[in-house]
């Protein structure tokens, strides 16, 4: 490929087809996404007057709307502004060493002022530079008082939602004070001249020492080491910035100072201010359409009629009334549903409702289940369905009188009338073949090929199972687990074991015909662990010895799954296979795979084939597994390519979990693997599950994204569903919504419990509807939006080139923000980048998604790693995608040993690291302890029990157990971070300026990526340019 940078393919006015923006070219156009010709930004809406300020001037026309703050650049740099303007009252900047939140809260009494016009500059120059930025916060409590000099009377605009505003006036400026963080943008430096060439800063490893020194005159051209602005781009149409490393085609022009990263919206500041406002409080779900605390905020959730945000989070809690409005905003309308989410011990578990043989009460027309959205009428004898408005008779056993408010007298005694989430006991009508189900079974299937025996892995698994089988999940009131267990080993053939309790020794049966697998025994294969304990312990002792002399290195894979599924089917049970596998299945058998890891396909139209399975054997197998309630958990131990896209497919479709331990070493990697295995065995889950999402009239669920299988357009089928799995559901209008009734969603999940009881789990949530776009933006949730965009994009790469998918994401981001600026913000000049308060960190998260290894095709990134990450993200809930795309970076050199609290995180950028510091970084899969070269010897002694930096070994994957407060506190933090995440994070110790630091740097997501992704600052410039193009 040429060193040209990326240019967006379709012009922005042209429509791009497909659901979620990622459909096939011939599919009909859907709203809410990419390029609807009717939603182009031409005529301004009547309520918003276009400003008539000369281009480049940052002064808005008319006064700011109530509640708006315009912060003057001059005021920041040169003290008080011009006479007649009242100086701002801000808290002073923190000391330069402070790495806390990027901007402290400003005092509510601060006075609004207008920015001074930008320095005079010719239009020709202006066209050449993107003006420097200023961010204003529009928050509550900042309304100017009437009669204040800055608040002239004028026609009043509707108050905009809280918003961030960035102004870009050009020209040289006074250097900013050292990392001063005032609310909004500090005096910052303007950006490199990029407008004319359409150039975007290219990816160069970040270098903190490149900042222009204060007082140094800008040189005539770039300093050689500063020429890190990437190659020129053809045309002025911009796409994902920094696609290629900076080449020779550097831009020339007058030297400009860089935008100050402290001044752009900070995810950490957003997270911390939500924690400060809502952390530790009780959040009651008693109001339709209320926005819950962020997923990063700890609070106690009280169900009072709508499902807890632990179960359902939405991209916006106020849907636009019409599909035209939805097309205009392009905000996807979606819910992320995690039906089995873990609930902390201080919150009430779900109530179980049992109506005996009559079963759950449901609407006759739409089959929605009885819930708080049903309206009782005619003295309580009938009820109107909240979803389809059908009038139903109340069954006689369920009848109750109404009070003077029209509410049933037993309202608070019945979970299904007063709570958002609850469960029903299902009747035989909800069971397979109208028979009560058997309790599920777990089958352990161990690859006993040469490498696994020699590495000690097989012995490790067998030893662990001896103790782990005591911890099989059970209902709280039961003494022992009802789950049955079975054992299979395999290499090129399958070995089944009879572990019937009456036997003195286990018996092995070998199946050599792997082309058509059958189960050689029924009686004695799936047993009760308590009854067969001695035989099973015997077997687990014997397996490593039985295969000790094997030299068989080839393995099968598909027949292993087939065998497990056939065994469950014959026993008429749902269940879960635990498969421990290590190599590409190359033995002659169905599902045999060849190595197709071809780096030449990267960045071509055929790159998508790397994410698709080889052949259709695994898809057919997945379909059969789902039909038989067989969930597949896969533990992979590869030391080379194993084709995750193929072998992991069944796991993904059946609601299983994929674990991967590259180049597994017994000493270093056992703790991580064993911890994953233990947690997986003990997970709360449901088996043989079907989920359906119902909605009130006017909209419907159209797209389901997750680790799921769909046989038709409405039923989400999962062989099993556990506490970590989430399904993201997109909704579309099919009519106009109603502001009074709102938008109602009911998720019903039919499943079998670990004890074999059939149940229906119900989650209900009500959202508001509005004819005002501002209401839609005001209730958006960035974390849920990123979950939706990640899953949509990761699904789309199966059928579209990666470049197209990246362009769609950039385009969509620009469209959502452009619509806000045009319709909801106060009038602003072209040079102002205005972000809604709820979306002010959307650009940084979107840039993290664009830089993820799945969407960046580089030869250095193993194909299996990309397929693995893609599969994990498809099943993630909102909390997991939030941490995965924007890791937590904690300064641990400044731990407060007296308090229990985890230190406040800092932004993921190299600028936040310090030579004398130690930092912990976690993203849910990996965990790093980064140590600066001059970190204090006391800290080293306290954590590692060695005298100096040079003595620290980076081979260790855990910290030694030491009896000192610092070590104990850090261990406590590690446990806290780990406890909330589905995967055990292996600790990697990184010393500054040593080789492993390159791996660590990929997680500093605000910086340029070594694999060709833009820094946050550069991406913001790119998005601003896209928005300006859309609005011009």
UniProtKB/TrEMBL annotation:
Region of interest: Disordered: 1-266
Composition skew (Polar residues), residue ranges: 37-50, 70-85, 119-145, 180-191
Membrane topology summary: Peripheral membrane protein
Keyword terms, alphabetized: Cytoplasm, Cytoplasmic vesicle, Endoplasmic reticulum, ER-Golgi transport, Membrane, Metal-binding, Phosphoprotein, Protein transport, Transport, Zinc
Pfam families: Gelsolin, Sec23_BS, Sec23_helical, Sec23_trunk, zf-Sec23_Sec24
InterPro entries named in the record: ADF-H/Gelsolin-like_dom_sf, Beta-sandwich_Sec23_24, Gelsolin-like_dom, Gelsolin-like_dom_sf, Sec23/24_helical_dom, Sec23/24_helical_dom_sf, Sec23/24_trunk_dom, SEC23_SEC24_subfamily
GO annotation terms (biological process): COPII-coated vesicle cargo loading; intracellular protein transport
Residue ranges, compositional bias (Low complexity): 102-112
Residue ranges occupied by any Zinc finger Sec23/Sec24-type domain in the UniProt entry: 360-397
GO molecular function: SNARE binding; zinc ion binding
Keyword Heme: no
Domain Sec23/Sec24 helical: 782-881
Domain Gelsolin-like: 902-973
PANTHER family in the record: PROTEIN TRANSPORT PROTEIN SEC24D, SEC24-RELATED PROTEIN
Family that this chain belongs to: Belongs to the SEC23/SEC24 family. SEC24 subfamily.
Protein's name in the database: Protein transport protein Sec24D
